[in-house]
Amino acid sequence: MKKVDDFVLREIANEYVLVPTQGAARVFDGIITFNEQAVLLWNKIDECEDAKALSKCLTDEYDVDPETALNDTQNFLNRLLEARIIKM
Amino acid sequence: MTRNDKIISAYDILPVYKELIDEGREVKLTVAGYSMEPFLKNGRDKVLLGKVSRPLKRGDIAFYVRPTGQYVLHRIKKICGEDCYFVGDSQIAVEGPIKSSAVFAVATAVYRKDKLLKKGDFLWEVFEHLWLMLLPMRRMIFKFVYRSGQNEKS
After folding, report:
1. Which residue has the higher pLDDT, A31 or B40?
2. Do A33 and B9 touch (CB under 8 A)?
3. How many H helices and E strands in chain A?
């Protein structure tokens, strides 16, 4: 999995937001807000091969069972894929 | 894990956009305010902003910071040395002088009614040149347009 470089994560007024720039700015309207779990996943996306590996970040950091973590991670990745924010 | 119910104020987000532009990234901003009408409409149109990589010129849509810290998107009316004078497309009064170093981005393209317009496109050129040239006559034009609207209503 790989992030599209044109999306930049920034902290604004205690909110984490993903801002489209460059080519992404031309096709994507608005910004996306992330919660802390999403930020954790976002920062590890490039290092993990699949959703299962990525979901381990959640189970390592939070008191969550592996199945829930995997479901949440998969949903998160699906939304990013649909919006072309990451590539497989 | 993503949310769509948060409102982040321009006051908070614009410094971050400035930072990204300073890094050389192009960003898109939705127009907020009425001063660039009729070219750019509040909430409807969007502007692609890029770092100033060439000398500024009359007619450029410039994004700058006022000495008060307020971020403004207006058109350059004239440049005198290091000083810039600005006016919105719906305005009559010219603002300035403001140091050209206050300009940190220029519009590279706009999305007007979802249609991409850039340098060379007819409407872009009309507003960059003709509409700016008509600045001394804008008051009269606005009065005429207003009266025409009133007549149509009655």
Report:
1. B40
2. no
3. 4, 5
